[in-house]
Design a protein that fits this description.
- The structure holds two protein chains of two kinds.
- Helix content of chain A is 77%, strand content 0%.
- Chain A contains eleven helices and no strands.
- Chain A is flat and about 65 Å long.
- Chain B is mainly α.
- Chain B is built from 13 helices and two strands, in the order H-H-H-E-E-H-H-H-H-H-H-H-H-H-H.
- In chain B, strands 1-2 form a two-stranded antiparallel ribbon.
- Chain B is flat, with a radius of gyration of 26 Å.
- Chain B starts with 11 loop residues before the first helix and ends with a helix.
- Classes of the chains: A mainly alpha, B mainly alpha.
- Chains A and B meet through helix 1, helix 3, helix 4, helix 5 and helix 6 of A and helix 1, helix 4, helix 5, helix 6 and helix 7 of B.
C-alpha cells in the first residue's frame, strides 16, 4: 500500500515537474523576443530622426546623414519582386487548386513549392547571379528584385492554393451549371471570394522580403547615391544595415539601428495585418 | 414542364468556341506559372552545379575534406565551412528541440485557453523578425554578454570535463559556434514549436480521454499517447527547423567570425557555408574562388533539399493517417 502511495507521489511529482519545465521553456522563448525587441527599440529610437528619411547614406565617418536612398531602393526592389512573383504565384496556386487535384504533377509541384519555401535564400541569390548578373556583366536593382521574387513566389503559391481550396465547391458547381466558362468561374468568382486570403499571402511575402539580405548582397549590391536606373546597383535597407553594422564607425552603427527599427516595425505591422485579415476570412467562411 | 428548344442564335457557336479556346489558353497560362515554380528549383540546382564545376573539377573529393583555404594561392578546401554549418545547426537543434517541445506542451496542456492564442502569436513573432536583426543583436548585445558572463563559466566547468571538455575550451570572445548555435536555436524555435503544437491538436480526443480515464497524469498522456501518435510529424517539424538552420545566413555571418582556421572548440570563431558566401562572394577575385563559393552553395542546396524533403514526407505521413482515420 505504502509502495503504491510512493509510486503515486512520484508520478504526480513527475507530472508537475514536466508542466513547470514546459512553462519555463515558454518563458525562456518569450524572454528572447522581449530582449531583442527591447534592444531594437531602445537603440533604434535614439537614432531615429527625420533626416533618416530625407538624407543620403553618409560616407565612412558616418556622422549625420540618413538612409533615404536605401529606403527608396528597398521599395523599388520589393515592388519588382511583387510585380514578378505575385502574378506567377497566383497563377501557379490557381492551377494547383483548380486543375491539379489528384494529379501526379500537382503533387510534385506542391511538394517542391514547399521546399522552395524554406530553401536557403542565399542560394537563390546565387541562381539569380548566374542567370542575370553574369550575362549582363553588372549588378542591378532588377536582379535584386528577381532574387526576392523567388522568395515571394512560393509564399503566394501556397496561400493561394490553400485559400482557393477553402472556397466551398458548391460555389464552383453553381457557377459552372449556369454555363459560365471555367476561366471566368476561377477569376471572377473563386478568386474574388478568396481575395482576402490571397492578399494575406502577398502581405506575408512582403514581410519576408522586407528584411531579406543575403540574396541582395550579390544581385542588387549597394550604392551610396541615388539611383533611379533599374539596371544599375541600388542600395537597400538590409544590405546597408549589414554594411554599417559590420563597420567600426559609431555613426554608421546608429544609422543601422535606426534602419533595423524601421524594418522590424514594418514587418511586425505587416504580420499583424495579415493575421487580422486571416481571422476575418475565417469568420466569413464559417 | 419542358422548355422549348433553344433556337441556335447565329453567334452561339462562335461564343462556345471562343469560351473553349479561352479556357484552354487560361489553363495553359496557369500551367506555365506552375512549371515556373519547378524551373526555379531546378534552375537553382542546375546553375549552382554548373557554376561550381570549376571547383569540383580542380579539387575533386579533396574539396570536402581539406581545411586549407588560401584565396591568394587558389587553394580551397571546404571542410571548415561544412563543419561550421553542421556543428552550429546541431547545437541549435540540441537547444531548440526540448525548448520547442516545452512550449508546445505548455500551449496545448498547461496554459489557460484565453492565454494560448496570444502566446502562440508572440512565439511566432520570433519567426517574423528579420534575420539581420538577429545578427545585429547577436553581435552587439548577445556576444558581449556571453563573453562576460557565460563563456568563462563554460570554459571552467564544461572545459574541465574529460573527453567532451575540449569542445568547450577557448578564449571568451563571445563570437563563435556556440553563439551562432544559440542564435539559430532562437530563430528555429517558432518553426518547430508551431509544427508540434499543430500536430498535438490532431490527436483524437478519445485517445487522450481514454488514457486520462485510466488515471494517467497529463505528462503521461503527452509522453505515452500524444508523442507516439504524432511521432513522424514531430520529427518532420524538427527536420523543418534543421533545414532552416542549415541555410540561415545573416544571423550566422554576424556572430560566427568568418575564420578559416579549423578548431574543435565551440568557443572559437569559425565559418559556415552561407556565411562564407555572404562574406566573400562580391570580393572574390579569381574565377576559381567564385566557383568554389558557388560549389559550396550547391552543396548547401542539396543538403537542405534532402533535409526538407524528409521533413515534408514525415509531415505528410501524419496528414495521411488523419485522412484515413
Amino acid at each position: 500500500m505504502s509502495d503504491n502511495t510512493w509510486m503515486y507521489r512520484r508520478r504526480r511529482l513527475g507530472n508537475a515537474l514536466a508542466l513547470v519545465l514546459g512553462s519555463l521553456a515558454t518563458l525562456f522563448g518569450l524572454s528572447w523576443l522581449a530582449w531583442i525587441l527591447w534592444v531594437t527599440i531602445s537603440k533604434g529610437m535614439s537614432a531615429l530622426s527625420p533626416a533618416l528619411f530625407t538624407q543620403l547614406t553618409p560616407p565612412p565617418p558616418g556622422d549625420g546623414g540618413g538612409l533615404a536612398n536605401a529606403f527608396f531602393g528597398s521599395v523599388m526592389v520589393s515592388l519588382i519582386a511583387l510585380l514578378i512573383g505575385t502574378p506567377i504565384g497566383i497563377g501557379a496556386g490557381l492551377w494547383l487548386a483548380e486543375y491539379a487535384q489528384r494529379r501526379a504533377l500537382g503533387t510534385v509541384v506542391r511538394f517542391l513549392n514547399d521546399i522552395l519555401l524554406s530553401a536557403p535564400s542565399i542560394v537563390l541569390g546565387l541562381f539569380v547571379y548566374s542567370l542575370v548578373v553574369k550575362p549582363l556583366g553588372h549588378f542591378s536593382a532588377l536582379a535584386g528584385g528577381l532574387a526576392l521574387a523567388l522568395i515571394v513566389l512560393p509564399v503566394v503559391v501556397r496561400t493561394t492554393d490553400e485559400m482557393l481550396r477553402l472556397v466551398p465547391s458548391t460555389m464552383r458547381e453553381a457557377a459552372l451549371s449556369l454555363g459560365v466558362p471555367q476561366w471566368k468561374v476561377i477569376v471572377q468568382i473563386l478568386l474574388r471570394s478568396a481575395r482576402a486570403g490571397v492578399v494575406t499571402g502577398i502581405l506575408l511575402a512582403l514581410a519576408r522580403i522586407t528584411g531579406e539580405t543575403a540574396p541582395l548582397l550579390f544581385t542588387a549590391l549597394n550604392n551610396q547615391y541615388w539611383n533611379h536606373d533599374l539596371l544599375k546597383p541600388i542600395a537597400t535597407v538590409p544590405v546597408v544595415i549589414f554594411q554599417f553594422a559590420m563597420s567600426p564607425y559609431d555613426g554608421w552603427h546608429a544609422l543601422a539601428w535606426a534602419g533595423a527599427l524601421v524594418v522590424t516595425a514594418f514587418v511586425l505591422v505587416l504580420s499583424l495585418l495579415s493575421r487580422l485579415l486571416l481571422a476575418r476570412t475565417k469568420v466569413t467562411h464559417d | 414542364m419542358t422548355l422549348p428548344a433553344q433556337p441556335t442564335k447565329p453567334g452561339e457557336h462562335r461564343r462556345i468556341a471562343r469560351d473553349a479556346r479561352n479556357d484552354l489558353l487560361f489553363r495553359g497560362a496557369l500551367l506555365t506559372c506552375a512549371l515556373l515554380v519547378l524551373a526555379a528549383l531546378l534552375g537553382t540546382a542546375g546553375s549552382t552545379l554548373w557554376g561550381g564545376r570549376l571547383a569540383f573539377e580542380t579539387f575533386g573529393w579533396k574539396f570536402l575534406i581539406s581545411d586549407h583555404w588560401d584565396a591568394v594561392n587558389g587553394q580551397f578546401g571546404a571542410l571548415v565551412p561544412i563543419w561550421g554549418t553542421l556543428m552550429t545547426s546541431l547545437l541549435a537543434m540540441l537547444l531548440a528541440v526540448p525548448i520547442s517541445f516545452g512550449i508546445a506542451l505548455f500551449l496545448t496542456e498547461v496554459a489557460p485557453i484565453w492565454l494560448r492564442t496570444p502566446i502562440a502569436a508572440a512565439v511566432e513573432l520570433l519567426a517574423g523578425i528579420p534575420s539581420i536583426i538577429y545578427g545585429m543583436w547577436g553581435l552587439f548585445v548577445l556576444a558581449p554578454f556571453l563573453a562576460d558572463h557565460v563563456d568563462p563559466w563554460v570554459n571552467d566547468k564544461l572545459g574541465a570535463l574529460p573527453g567532451v571538455g575540449r569542445l568547450f575550451r577557448g578564449p571568451p570572445l563571445g563570437i563563435g559556434m556556440l553563439t551562432a548555435g544559440l542564435v539559430l536555436a532562437i530563430m528555429v524555435i517558432p518553426f518547430i514549436s508551431s509544427v508540434m503544437r499543430e500536430v498535438f491538436h490532431t490527436v483524437p480526443t478519445r485517445l487522450k480521454e481514454s488514457a486520462y480515464a485510466l488515471g494517467s497524469t497529463t505528462w503521461e498522456v503527452v509522453w505515452n499517447i500524444v508523442l507516439p501518435y504524432t511521432r513522424s510529424a514531430v520529427i518532420g517539424g524538427i527536420f523543418l527547423g534543421l533545414g532552416r538552420a542549415l541555410g540561415e545566413t545573416m544571423a550566422v555571418t554576424f556572430v560566427l567570425g568568418n575564420a578559416h582556421q579549423f578548431s574543435e572548440s565551440l568557443l572559437m570563431p569559425s565559418s559556415s557555408i552561407a556565411s562564407v558566401i555572404a562574406n566573400e562572394f562580391t570580393e572574390a577575385s579569381s574565377d576559381l574562388h567564385r566557383s568554389t563559393l558557388i560549389a559550396l552553395g550547391f552543396l548547401l542546396f542539396v543538403v537542405t533539399f534532402i533535409v526538407l524533403a524528409i521533413a515534408k514526407l514525415l509531415l505528410l505521413r501524419l496528414a495521411r493517417k488523419e485522412g484515413n482515420a
